[in-house]
Write a structure and sequence with these properties.
This protein has 108 residues and is an all-beta fold. The protein contains no helices and 7 strands. The protein folds into 2 domains: 31 residues; 75 residues, OB fold (Dihydrolipoamide Acetyltransferase, E2P), CATH 2.40.50. A 5-stranded mixed beta barrel has the order 3-4-5-7-6. Strands 1-2 form a two-stranded antiparallel ribbon. Strand 4 and strand 5 form a beta hairpin.
């Protein structure tokens, strides 16, 4: 779910920011595809956050098909798999967890 402008239909990354297209403050949550591409990433070698099973943790900025960029964890299928900019990813369904407020993505 992403904020979608009620005036022009543009998706945006945050409910607290005005629409980047028309500057309207009005938005509602709308379903999105959950698909996108890695825009940028970093590998955290100091250890994974509590509740995250993969170490080192991979944190990425994902540019969604709908346009906004969001930050999330990338879960690779195996420890030897590689990650790269422009890699296609999709959101992984997960239970709500206050320890990991960011979404998770996996390679498509």
């Amino acid at each position: 779910m992403l904020p979608k402008c009620t005036e022009c239909g543009e998706f945006r990354a945050s409910l607290s920011n005005p629409c980047p297209k028309c500057s309207s403050p009005n938005a509602h949550l709308a379903k999105c595809s959950g698909r996108g591409r890695i825009y940028s990433y970093l590998v955290e070698h100091w250890g994974a956050p509590q509740g995250y099973s993969q170490a080192p943790a991979i944190i990425a900025v994902v540019e969604l098909e709908e346009g906004p960029r969001v930050m999330g964890y990338v879960v690779l299928p195996d420890p030897d798999a590689s990650i790269s900019v422009n890699m296609p990813v999709e959101a992984v369904a997960q239970e709500a967890d206050h320890r990991l407020p960011m979404p998770r993505f996996r390679p498509r």
